[in-house]
Amino acid sequence: MVNQKKAGVILSYISEVIKILSSLIYTPIMLRLLGQSEYGTYQIVYSVVSYLSLLSLGFTASYVRYFSRYKVQEKDDDIAKLNGMFMTIFLIISAICLLCGSVMVINIKSIFSDGLTENEYSIARTLMIMMVINLAITFPNSVFDCFTAAHERFFFQRLLTVLQNLLNPFLTLPLLIMGYGSVGMVAVTTLLTVSKLISNIWFSFKKLHVHFQFKGFDVSLLKEIWAFTFFIFLNQIIDQINWSVDKFLLGRMIGTTATAVYGLGGQINTMYVQLSSSVSSVFVPKVNRIVADTNDNTMLSKLFSRIGRIQFIILSLVLSGFIFFGEPFMHFWGGAGYEASYGIALWLIIPVTVPLIQNLGIEIQRAKNMHKVRSVVYFFIAIGNIFLSIPLIKLYGAIGAAMGTAISLTAGNILFMNWYYNYKIGLDIPAFWKNILKFIPALIFPVICGTLIMILVEINSVMKLFVFAFIYFICFSLSMWFIGMNDDEKQMIMKPIQKLFQILIRKIRRNADK
User: Fold this and answer.
1) Residue 73 in 3-state DSSP?
2) C-alpha–C-alpha distance, residues 5 and 483, integer Å
3) By C-alpha distance, which of 182, 345, 173 is closest to 264?
4) Are 485 and 452 within 8 A, CB to CB?
5) pLDDT digits (tens, 9 = 90+) for 285-325
6) What is the DSSP-derived secondary structure letter of residue 335?
7) CA atoms in the 13 A half-sphere facing the CB of 4
8) Which member of 50, 82, 107, 355 has the lowest number of beta carbons within 10 Å of its beta carbon?
């Protein structure tokens, strides 16, 4: 299982690197082939359809918890009933998604008001139909993802993600060049979703030997699951408000161009968030096991700090690098008309950094069934985000939307959550921040290096951007290695490298013997 975790983390980061690299190459081409109007239309339709994902009602987040409980007790029949219950629920949700999506398509002009032109409405209608179908397929697919995660078979799960991230730009680009536009993009996404579903079904039955029992459902268990998942569902509403409502408001109040500019900045934020969750997601089963077996807060606090430090190293490199090189990067990447996307990205990623290095805490709350208070508080903060963003959009446009989100994130995710983790959940937050603050000396040299580059160098070409960003990466890595990282973190990096060298040496010796 340890190897599965390591493989899962490694493949997660390979997947994210592929995603980032493909975005670096693919996004500028896509933006120029689509144009701001169609890209903005795609973003605003996606932001609306994504609200249908709330139909999952938070059930996927609860499966591992109840699976872990039955696994510890060795109740295979109850696991089969649990599987049958979850599949039935998600097939019903999938049907409801199609029904709700049909209503949205019929009333599309009421949804977007006067924010779109007639041509944009025609594209939006087609996109909405395809996106709804794609989303309906993801619901049963998510059940199979839950099976794989609960069995801690992270290698297969992350391998599918790697393949998906690899194939998406390669399949989409020819369709864009042929003139299929955003419709071609969504068609490829749907094809890959179907392929993933088929692969998950094969793996679950062939390798995991998953069993379903579609009768004798425990109604009391369903009530218990709903009581648990309701607040996860509330949290999903909050995430949708925080990450989607800005694009919807911009589309209605200003138009598709402002939505496109915000969407590009938001894409940076999405990659940033996913980079963090790649580590914490593979520890969800372990957290649930600790809580189910001993509920030891000392063990949980140590794991919380350990994962937080790893996430901080990665995120501080990305954040500091984006601060120093983000402006020329967004200029070359997005092109003319997307200059404001740099400021939008900063307003989004800076305040979200703290909750991202602490995102294992969300799983600890859920495992302890203590996530309710967080969800309620965040819900009111998210509503405040809407009322704050509307006047800020009127004053500052797309930047104002990002500012409203940043203020709400700071109030809830940073101030409230650290108090709640410490005094209610039982995690050692002072020890966590002592561990994080130990990195400050290691950040001094990279900050000096980045500042000098900004002052002394005019980055007016992609080659210059690449060269000086690489120099900064070397400065940051050396400083972290010699000043910031502890022995365990260094071993985490060195072990895979040593194994790789050992494999290479063996191959060289075999070839020499031949």
Assistant:
1) coil
2) 27
3) 345
4) no
5) 778 778 877 878 889 999 999 989 989 999 999 999 999 99
6) -
7) 15
8) 107
